[in-house]
Every structure is written in structure tokens, then in C-alpha cells.
Design brief:
299 residues, six-stranded parallel β-sheet, Histone, subunit A, alpha/beta, globular
């Protein structure tokens, strides 16, 4: 059987570095499942791999789309299956890496068969969002499904609207009941996770935000500001700076909010990943040989 090594974990845990090291050791290629690194206009704020990392091992699904394109997890699943099928003709092992749990699950398990879009419900929810703000959507979702509310990005209005839309058509079923479909893929999957103590992880996150600002995140966000209403730009690191441009926040506060919201995002990522009992966790200060041995020992 072919094998897919899946590397997950919270933001700033070093997933890219591990993926590159493993790809070099195993002489293979990397597929990204980071839903914001898909966009070519967003580099600094999404921590796209450095040029030397991209040169060290072949990467796929990095900056291959534009923020102006309509692209979703269903599109990614189709593209991943096509690309991995082609690459598995050349390699026994591939590496899939990213912090977007939904996209990793789509690649490994397939998408759930959920109710289609309901334009009537969607229009009502969008009206509610406009009139009463995102807190109104959060209240509805928490009442419909508190468990799912605790697992998703509740600051993403598009995600909230879609979840409410699904649940209101589900005859009282919770999202966990609806998300039962698991397809058998034509490859074995080895799950690896990177994490560390919360204080250390938060310190890594804070330092990475500082590095992003030094690299020019402010200018990148200013260039993208005219398109701030696009779904792709409803992203930590950009939306906070948009508030600075609008005069709502000063720059120091906006940066502190980026750090805070990134830490919250990492917490949600870990909630998602910890549901998967198949993940073998390693500290961010891992020994590469230890991970190589773990992979080699799996029959």
C-alpha cells in the first residue's frame, strides 16, 4: 500500500520544517492543506514556506489560487485526490501538511454529505449579521449545537452561517451525527502531530507575529485592504490590521489582537486534532530520527 504521512498541529509548531525534513529523508513531495496558504496574494500573514524551504522539496497547493477565485474545501478534496493519485505512481510515500483540520479530514476521510445551500436561510442569516452583528450568529449556533460551537472558528461569519444553515435543515441532529461518512482511501495514513506546552507555544506565536510585522505584514495588509470583504481575507493577521486602517484601533493594539486571536486559533486547532486518536504527538523540539523510526516501525 501507498502511505500518506499527515503532519498536523497548531500554528507556529514547526509543521513546515518537519515536512521538508521528512520529504528530503524519504525522497518525496509535499502537499499543503493550509487553507490560507493557497492564495498567492497572501504570503507574510499566512506564513507561506520560505523560498529555501520551497526549494528544498517539491510543494503542491501553495499559492496556486487567487483570493478572487471561488475555492472551497470540496474543490480542494477533488484536486488533492487527482494530484495524489498522479504522485503515488512515482512515490510510495507522500506528505500532507497543514493546520486546517477540515481540509486534512477532506483529504483523508472525504467530505460529509451535508444539506445543500439554502438561499432563504442564508439570506436571513446574512441580514441578521448585518443588523445585529456576529454575536447573534454565535448565540444561535451555540444553542443549536454547543459541541460544534466549541470546535469551529466562531469569529468567521461564513463558517457560522453555513453551520446554522446545515443544522436548521437537519431535523434536530447535531453536526457530529451528520459528519459520520468516512471513505476508504487507496493509501494508508500515518498521523503525526506537533505540539508543546501552552506557554511555550504562545511564546512561539507571539514571536512569529513580531517577525511577520518585521517582514512587511503591514504593507501586505494595506495592499489587500480594498478587497477586505472577500472571504479569504477574513483571516487573523489581516482583519485586525484592517481595523487599524479604518482608525478603529491603533497599531500596537491591532498587533496585540493578532497575537491574541492567533493564540485562540491555535487552541481551536488543538481541539480539532485531539479528536483524532490516531495522531502520534511529538514535541516541537523533536528529534528527526525519532520520527523517522516511528514511521519505519509501522508495518
Amino acid at each position: 500500500m501507498k502511505r500518506l504521512i499527515v503532519i498536523g498541529g497548531p500554528t507556529a509548531s514547526g509543521k513546515t520544517g518537519l515536512a521538508v525534513s521528512l520529504a528530503q529523508k524519504l525522497h518525496t513531495e509535499i502537499l499543503s492543506a493550509d487553507s490560507r496558504q493557497f492564495y498567492k496574494e497572501m504570503s507574510i500573514g499566512t506564513a507561506v514556506p520560505e523560498p529555501e524551504e520551497l526549494a528544498a522539496a517539491p510543494h503542491h497547493f501553495i499559492q496556486h489560487k487567487s483570493i478572487f477565485e471561488d475555492y472551497n474545501v470540496g474543490d480542494f478534496e477533488k484536486e488533492f485526490l487527482t494530484k495524489s493519485k498522479a504522485l503515488f505512481q512515482q512515490y510510495k510515500t507522500l506528505i500532507l501538511v497543514g493546520g486546517s483540520g477540515l481540509y486534512l479530514d477532506a483529504a483523508c476521510k472525504g467530505l460529509d454529505k451535508l444539506p445543500p445551500k439554502n438561499e432563504t436561510i442564508r439570506a436571513e442569516l446574512q441580514k441578521l449579521l448585518k443588523e445585529k452583528g456576529i454575536a447573534a450568529l454565535q448565540t444561535i449556533l451555540k444553542k443549536l449545537d454547543a459541541d460544534y460551537f466549541a470546535r469551529i472558528d466562531i469569529h468567521n461569519p461564513h463558517r457560522l452561517i453555513r453551520a446554522i444553515e446545515i443544522l436548521q435543515q437537519s431535523d434536530g441532529k447535531k453536526m457530529k451525527e451528520l459528519q459520520q461518512q468516512t471513505l476508504v482511501r487507496p493509501f494508508d495514513i500515518i498521523y503525526i502531530g506537533l505540539n508543546t506546552e501552552r506557554a511555550k507555544l504562545y511564546d512561539r506565536i507571539n514571536k512569529r507575529v513580531d517577525i511577520m510585522m518585521e517582514k512587511g505584514l503591514l504593507n501586505e495588509a494595506r495592499h489587500l485592504y480594498p478587497h477586505k470583504d472577500l472571504n479569504a481575507l477574513n483571516t487573523v493577521g489581516y482583519k485586525e490590521l484592517f481595523k487599524y486602517f479604518e482608525g478603529e484601533w491603533d497599531l500596537d493594539f491591532a498587533i496585540s489582537e493578532i497575537k491574541k486571536n492567533t493564540r485562540r486559533f491555535a487552541k481551536r486547532q488543538l481541539t480539532w486534532f485531539r479528536k483524532n486518536q490516531a495522531i502520534k504527538w511529538f514535541d516541537v523540539n523533536y528529534q528527526l530520527d525519532e520520527i523517522i523510526k516511528y514511521i519505519a516501525d509501522i508495518p
